[in-house]
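Hey, can you fold this?
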Amino acid sequence: MIDETTFRLESDKALESLKQALIRAEEAGGFETDEKNGVLNVLFEDDSPKFVFTPNTPVRQIWISALSTSYKLEWDPSAAVFILPKTGEDLQALTQRLLREQLQDSGITLH
C-alpha cells in the first residue's frame, strides 16, 4: 500500500486529469462536471443519478459511485495509475465506459 502523502498527491493528480477530460467531453452533451471539496461529480441532463468520484485516503482507493454500483480503484505502482482490479481498467477508461453506458453513446471519448 502506498503511503498517505503519495496517495493524496496521486489521487489529486488523477482526479484533476479526469476532471479536465470530462470538461472537454461535455461538449458532446448530456452531462456536466462539478467539483466540491475534492469530490468530483458528473451530473446528467436527464436527472439520472449522478456519478461521484471520491478519494478514500484510509484505504488508499478512489471510489466511484455510478450506475447503482460502487467501484473501488487501487493504485498500480507499475503502471502509475489507479485501476479497477476486477477489469484492469484505469480511472479514465472505466469512466469513459460508464459514461457510454449511462448515455447510451459509444462516441463519448475521454482524452
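Oh, and this one too while you're at it.
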Amino acid sequence: MDYLRPTPLGVPLQIRGRVREIKGRKIVVAATLSANGEICARGEVVAVQVPDRLL
C-alpha cells in the first residue's frame, strides 16, 4: 500500500481494482482509492488459492 496524500473525511470515496495477472493458482490485483478525483492511495494484493485438501 502506498499512501500518496491525505484522504479527506466526509466526501465520497471511490475504490477501483483491476486484475493484473492470473497465473495458475495466483492472482495479482491492483487497486486505487480516490477522493475528489485525486488518487489518495494505491496498492496491490497477491492472492493464492489454497487446495481444498489443505483446508
